[in-house]
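Project standup — Tuesday

K.O.: blocked on the structure for the chain from last sprint. Re-posting the sequence here as requested.
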Amino acid sequence: MFRILLPLLGLLAWHVAWARDADPYERFRSIDENDQDFQYDSSGDTPWVEQAIDKPPAPNPKALAPLAVDSAPRGFHVLIDTSSIRNGEHDDVVRFWLVLESSRGVRNYSYEGMRCGTGEYKLYGYAMPDGGRVRPYAHPTWKPLRATPGGRYRIELKNDYLCNGATPRRPAEIRALVAGHEKQEIDPYAELLD
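H.V.: unblocked you, prediction finished:
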């Protein structure tokens, strides 16, 4: 019987030692790093607020530039009014006139906003096919970008032109991309090196 108990006791001692040393850095971690007793105080957080848009500006048909978008709706070309590209000063929303042009030359103008950080878009208004008479939507809402057959082009627009990850590109950078210049990646640490 002693022959059986000795190996079992040895195995039990090894298991206790192994469990205690499973994380050799455990003694260096703080309580918060182990997710114990961590409570985040959100009272100092500022909630995101969209800046007010009274009425979309009129589109400029002379400033339309084609976008190299592979997932455009069938039979349509995607264009952007480069003179309308704006970044919200307080909300980081990129706003612009987007145009879908049919193979017959009929244009659908929509004034849109893109939130890079959340992957959402909003339709603020539309214009008549000639680019005149802007009509705002009564209750515009933010909608998630979806990879549906008719919605993939907005995802491509976000990724290839308007946003660098969750960061909105500057209007001049977007215009350069539309003109066919190479992408300029944003260095998040550039301001720290100055």
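K.O.: great, moving the ticket to review. The CA atoms of residues 63 and 173 lie 16 Å apart. The chain has a mean pLDDT of 82.
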